Design the sequence.
């Protein structure tokens, strides 16, 4: 087993501004059949996400360690096809686009959330490929077209081997592998090929962080090797244990981690705080696993220390005073 480059995202700092999405889209997926792909996206939780209801496809690994092959998201239905706005019609109160009214797309339910005023809530969840330690996509591919690099753990599709079986898409529980029909080779019986986030490995090889991390205006993302004890990812994941994997029950051992969102208190009918968290603990447990309560308790305790004027290594890391210190490649 080689080294593993990993990422931590602090959901308490994410603005939902989509700068990371734009950085990825303009660099990797703005043409050639990738227009509908978002290797990086920021979705609102609770919400259906992208593709729609991606958590419900029944993929990944079973508790017994068996590979589960889920269903394929519908293209375009569960992704949504990019459209051009008919600006003249919109200004005049007419149809939204020149062709037809769209029914779904990325961030369709942005900022919606759940709950009733004054206790409505939501948080932003940025997502990329998790470059898993046990990637279901790799094990599902019948053509051995997916590999995991020894030097950094990045999971890549070998387009010289990919024959468009789409088993990788079905097996990935995060639905972060996409099908590109423009890469079809009919004479060879290949309907298209799979593509996915490559963690900007050409940048990594030059000592630069992935574009989504470097361009994040909220300083949400840290990137370093898990075994680097002085790196920010090791400290947040292994030392302080405040960064958790997304849906650990999927069994893929993802290497993108999240500092879970702290919650404002619920308000009673008189507008007074009740002490209960507005984001239901059960929902956070579903998303981040049972350790989320301990992680949130650690965050609160260290923030209180900092507020009293005491030192806190954890809070200093999360504040990210110096942008360059967030990346140790």
Sequence:
């Amino acid at each position: 087993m080689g080294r593993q480059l990993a990422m931590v995202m602090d959901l308490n700092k994410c603005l939902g501004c989509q700068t990371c999405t734009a950085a990825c889209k303009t660099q990797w997926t703005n043409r050639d059949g990738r227009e509908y792909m978002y290797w990086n996206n920021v979705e609102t939780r609770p919400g259906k996400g992208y593709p729609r209801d991606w958590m419900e496809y029944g993929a990944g690994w079973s508790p017994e360690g068996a590979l589960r092959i889920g269903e394929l998201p519908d293209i375009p239905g569960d992704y949504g096809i990019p459209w051009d706005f008919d600006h003249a019609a919109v200004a005049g109160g007419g149809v939204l686009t020149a062709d037809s009214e769209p029914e779904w797309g990325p961030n369709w339910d942005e900022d919606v959330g759940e709950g009733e005023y004054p206790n409505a809530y939501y948080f932003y969840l940025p997502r990329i490929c998790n470059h898993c330690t046990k990637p279901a996509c790799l094990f599902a591919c019948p053509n051995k077209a997916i590999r995991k690099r020894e030097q950094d753990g990045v999971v890549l599709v070998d387009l010289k081997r990919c024959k468009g079986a789409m088993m990788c898409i079905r097996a990935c529980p995060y639905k972060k592998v996409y099908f590109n029909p423009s890469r079809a080779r009919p004479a060879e019986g290949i309907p298209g090929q799979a593509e996915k986030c490559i963690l900007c490995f050409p940048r990594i090889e030059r000592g630069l962080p992935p574009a989504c991390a470097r361009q994040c205006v909220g300083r949400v993302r840290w990137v370093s090797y898990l075994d680097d004890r002085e790196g920010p990812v090791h400290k947040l994941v292994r030392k302080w244990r405040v960064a958790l994997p997304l849906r650990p029950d999927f069994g893929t051992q993802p290497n993108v981690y999240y500092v879970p969102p702290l919650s404002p208190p619920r308000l009673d009918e008189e507008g007074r705080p009740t002490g209960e968290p507005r984001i239901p603990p059960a929902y956070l447990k579903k998303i981040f696993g049972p350790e989320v309560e301990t992680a949130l308790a650690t965050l609160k305790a260290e923030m209180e220390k900092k507020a009293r004027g005491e030192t806190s290594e954890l809070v200093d890391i999360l504040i990210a005073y110096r942008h360059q210190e967030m990346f140790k490649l």
